[in-house]
# Entry
Amino acid sequence: MRARVPVSSPGAAVSVNPSAKWPRTARLGVLLVIAALLAFYLDDLRDFADDWQSQIEVEVDKGPCPKVPASRMASHYLEHLHGVEIGASTQNSFALKRSINVDFSDEHEAGMWQAKSCAPATVNIVALGDDLPFKDGTLDYVLSSHVIEHFFDPVKALKEWYRVIRPGGYIFIIAPHKDRTFDKFRDVTPVSELIDRSTGRIRISDYARPIDLAKMEKAGKKMHGPGYQVLPHQLVRNKKDARLEEGWTYYKTDDHHHWSVWRTNDFVALAKQLNLRIIESEDVDDKVGNGFTIVIKK
# Structure
């Protein structure tokens, strides 16, 4: 027999017989309380599950960083010099010890071209790539890889890079080749169009863009086949008389897509137009291989 202790006894502990059955109404009440608590915390449980799942996905993304070997040509010209890279990325590092990284932001959006499995490149200076905070002739070089095509006005960028390098300094550029990237279905951007952008005769608002490119492309592929592609922009030279097709609107801000498309000779023509001296070029770059290399010397 279990001794019963009066509850009223001061400091006494109450002994409960675990084999005793609760009344049916008590069991029902407890179940209702548990159900209410579960309902109350259900959203929190869902949030916890989503956070936990996202943590798993992040860990999955953090696999080996697929780094591309350094460029022999870049090392040859720039190894012992001091300069900047515009928009560096970890997976495509040039491994130049005296180079610092300039990007338009040190937040996530600046590294949107970074591989998810790689830690983002350190941004040493936050500045626009075509408006650098350096005095004239103070750098040995400016390096960019798969960046210049993202400038609406690449002429302005080239002039700015030329301004900040010293006499004898270099502008080292790797740009995507039209025939070896997703730009292969687009037309080459004429030099005259690039000059008009630089002089202000063509503004960003003169270009139309698809409102929902992914949706438009999906519908087009369903109708025309897997090779169908929607252009990211179209130049409208006479907006007063033009009527945009359904699903298109005009650009208001820069989304940093590939504004320009080149083959090697097309970029060479642009450099000549700007009186820039090219000392070496590669039709197939020695980095990723889907671009071309231009080396300009001041």
